[in-house]
């Protein structure tokens, strides 16, 4: 996929034997320095079949070899390509973006970038256990101040409070409806509460779902709590992908 002279690799899953009723742009986890689009294959294949949608996963460049802004550049490239070409490629212009942990940070940054460009093609976003303050300016941000990924990913940013790095500090007005999912025992729990509060103050429709006794990335674990959360995400996505009059 390419936009404005930039190219990015993606992995695409489509429903078997059915037209896609929407397209989910998925941004994988990995602390900005690990993971790949292929690592989400099992999850994305399930979503494609369960919801009859196409899932496009971004193989964004990883730190430390490619620090900020490489990853958000790649995610924006994929999002802009879909905004322009999804109807022709997949037969639908119903778009939603989803991120997991670091992927949620990149999804939020991508939505802000699109908003600033006047692009409102995405109907919503699912953000799971995201990282929204990489500057260590808030109490939540200071809890992870010594984590390796901060220097690996954001070390080249002169100001880590800029919204492209730490979305919690951005102007969040005009973003689409957002489902936020986080575990009560996640080290990023307070960070997610702060982001939800900022979104609500900006007039964004937010559905915050907190799951008790659940750690970071709990929906990737084979537990009943994870199944409950994933079922809820599926239902939310069905509603966002439903045709509108």
Characterise the protein shown here:
The protein is an alpha/beta fold and 245 residues long. It is 37% helix and 18% strand. It contains seven helices and nine strands. The strands form two sheets. It has a seven-stranded mixed sheet, sandwiched between helices. A two-stranded antiparallel ribbon has the order 1-2. Helix 6 (189-201) links the parallel strand 8 and strand 9 (206-211). Helix 2 (70-90) crosses helix 3 (102-116). The mean pLDDT is 95.
Q: What are the SSEs and their pairings?
A:
Blueprint: E1 2-3, E2 6-7, E3 10-13, E4 23-27, H1 41-51, E5 54-58, H2 70-90, E6 95-100, H3 102-116, E7 122-128, H4 139-143, H5 148-154, E8 178-183, H6 189-201, E9 206-211, H7 224-241
Parallel strand pairs: 4-5, 4-6, 6-7, 7-8, 8-9
Antiparallel strand pairs: 1-2, 3-5
Helix pairs in contact: 2-3
Strand order of the largest sheet: 3-5-4-6-7-8-9
Helix content: 25-40%
User: In total, how many beta strands?
Assistant: 9
Radius of gyration from the CA trace? 17 Å
Number of helices: 7
- The low-confidence runs, each spanning 5 or more residues with pLDDT under 50, are none
Strand content: 15-25%
Basic shape:
globular
Average pLDDT number: 95
Q: State the separation between the terminal residues, measured CA to CA.
A: 30 Å
For the biggest sheet, the summary is: 7 strands, mixed
What structural class do the secondary elements suggest? alpha/beta
- The ordered string of helix (H) and strand (E) elements is EEEEHEHEHEHHEHEH
């Amino acid at each position: 996929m390419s936009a404005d002279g930039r190219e990015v690799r993606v992995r695409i899953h489509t429903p078997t034997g059915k037209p896609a009723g929407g397209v989910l742009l998925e941004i994988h986890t990995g602390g900005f320095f690990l993971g790949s689009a292929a690592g989400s294959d099992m999850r994305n294949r399930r979503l494609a079949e369960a919801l009859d949608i196409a899932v496009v996963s971004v193989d964004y460049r990883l730190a430390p070899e490619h620090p900020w802004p490489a990853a958000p550049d790649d995610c924006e490239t994929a999002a802009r390509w879909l905004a322009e070409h999804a109807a022709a490629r997949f037969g639908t212009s119903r778009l939603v973006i989803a991120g997991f942990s670091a992927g949620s940070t990149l999804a939020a940054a991508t939505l802000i970038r699109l908003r600033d460009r006047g692009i409102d093609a995405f109907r919503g976003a699912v953000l799971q256990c995201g990282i929204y303050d990489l500057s260590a300016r808030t109490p939540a941000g200071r809890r992870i101040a010594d984590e390796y990924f901060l220097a690996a990913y954001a070390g080249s940013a002169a100001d880590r409070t800029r919204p492209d790095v730490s979305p919690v500090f951005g102007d969040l007005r005009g973003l689409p409806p957002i489902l936020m999912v986080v575990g009560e025992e996640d080290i990023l729990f307070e960070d997610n509460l702060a982001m939800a509060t900022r979104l609500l103050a900006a007039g964004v429709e937010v559905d915050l779902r907190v799951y008790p006794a659940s750690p970071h990335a709990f929906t990737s674990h084979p537990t009943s709590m994870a199944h409950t959360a994933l079922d809820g995400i599926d239902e939310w996505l069905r509603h966002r992908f439903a045709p509108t009059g």
